[in-house]
Amino acid sequence: MKRLVVLGGGESGVGTALLAKKEGYEVFVSDKGKITDKYKKVLINNEINWEEEKHTEDLILNADLVMKSPGIPEKVAIVQQLFAKGVKVISEIEFASEYTDSNIIGITGSNGKTTTATWTNFILKNGGLSVALAGNIGDSFAKAVLNKSAEHYVLELSSFQLDGVEDFRPHIAVLTNITPDHLDRYEYKYENYIASKFRITKNQTENDYFIYDADNPTIAEWLSNNKIKAKKLPLTFKNEVQEGAFLDKNNNIIVRIEDKEFIMAKEEIALKGEHNTKNAMAASTVAQLLKIRKQTIRESLGSFQGVEHRLEKVLKINNVQYINDSKATNINATYYALDSVSAETIWIVGGVDKGNKYEELLSLVNEKVKAIICLGVDNARIKEVFSNCVEHLVETQSMKEAVDFANHLSEKGDTVLLSPACASFDLFQNYEDRGRQFKEYVRSL
């Protein structure tokens, strides 16, 4: 019996453990931190051996195969020891893909991947397909495969998940954009992060499709220097394309696939902002490829409600709009957020900085932001860049304190925007926890 060791006892780790057990592996789960009660129960009920708060070398280094959860960097000692022994270390996405024949739509990008994946899933469901959303959102892919939940999987894929990919091959791959992010995991080398994103297409063949933002300079440059086998379907605002999606001079989205055209006015799309127009183009291109009726695509683009923690309007209190954009964990996402607000803004920012170039936000901050509330353990860089831009810059150490300050500083007609541009791990469990706390304290004002 082959021995699979799973590093990390979270959603992807436990999903992999369950699938591996069903496929006849001897399974052991090891987590350097604590495993939550929810996942412990699952492991115990399924008689899977596990340990927490340690990695016991004798129980790990004898593995035939190791699945490393995406949150664990390759540089940690136990992973380096596995490499030295020649043990194969893969990602959950790689492992699970071997056990399904379903059609896979893989979606990645620095920003927009959650919205695009959720929107794509929404359209395909409305079109009557058997479809499930998994990966970096909702259930792990392994759990979805274990439950044989669908004929089509829409997978949101992070760069960390793609790092452990060897044979994984989505039939349709989407790359929403690439901007610097997570550089702390890539030796602060942008080219390493870019290579990671393009792993989504590395095993695709001439029979597969690669949908990408042709206006993104990083993507355009990589494609001009590297060949891919998949059929390229660009998304662009700049010029007409024979196949792919573009914006015409009347502001209509036009999607062209194999001589068939889908046309819809940009203003009829439910989510506003240029980035959401691109997300809509990507989702509707996938839908066209899968032969969803045009009427269904049109209705789905016009009625989609968006994603929790992404420019989510929480409440209006005394004519002040509170917006939760906790999912903005990098500069580019926060750029979109600030760009999308028109009112005077009180901006809540900060957390774990991944090598942010805050200077890229200066023009928008000067134009729109009247007060900055720092929410992080270390706010030195934020203060250094923005202290001369605004009248009020305060530091806080809890969400309650940040929301109370925002309430105090805001006036009628203002917007309070939580768009941290940083990871959340200094003060919160994750970006969801950060966003939910924001909503909770806003509602209790």
UniProtKB/TrEMBL annotation:
UniProt record, GO biological process: cell division; cell wall organization; peptidoglycan biosynthetic process; regulation of cell shape
Pfam family, one: Mur_ligase_C
EC annotation from Swiss-Prot or TrEMBL: 6.3.2.9
Mur ligase central domain location: 107-287
UniProt pathway: Cell wall biogenesis; peptidoglycan biosynthesis
Protein's cellular compartments: Cytoplasm
Catalyzed reactions per annotation: UDP-N-acetyl-alpha-D-muramoyl-L-alanine + D-glutamate + ATP = UDP-N-acetyl-alpha-D-muramoyl-L-alanyl-D-glutamate + ADP + phosphate + H(+)
Annotated Gene Ontology cellular component terms: cytoplasm
UniProt keyword list: ATP-binding, Cell cycle, Cell division, Cell shape, Cell wall biogenesis/degradation, Cytoplasm, Ligase, Nucleotide-binding, Peptidoglycan synthesis
Residues engaged in binding ATP: 109-115
Superkingdom, natural source: Bacteria
Mur ligase C-terminal domain: residues covered: 309-422
Single GO MF descriptor: UDP-N-acetylmuramoylalanine-D-glutamate ligase activity
Annotated PANTHER family: UDP-N-ACETYLMURAMOYLALANINE--D-GLUTAMATE LIGASE
Family to which this protein belongs: Belongs to the MurCDEF family.
UniProt function note: Cell wall formation. Catalyzes the addition of glutamate to the nucleotide precursor UDP-N-acetylmuramoyl-L-alanine (UMA).
Protein name (database record): UDP-N-acetylmuramoylalanine--D-glutamate ligase
Gene giving rise to this polypeptide: murD
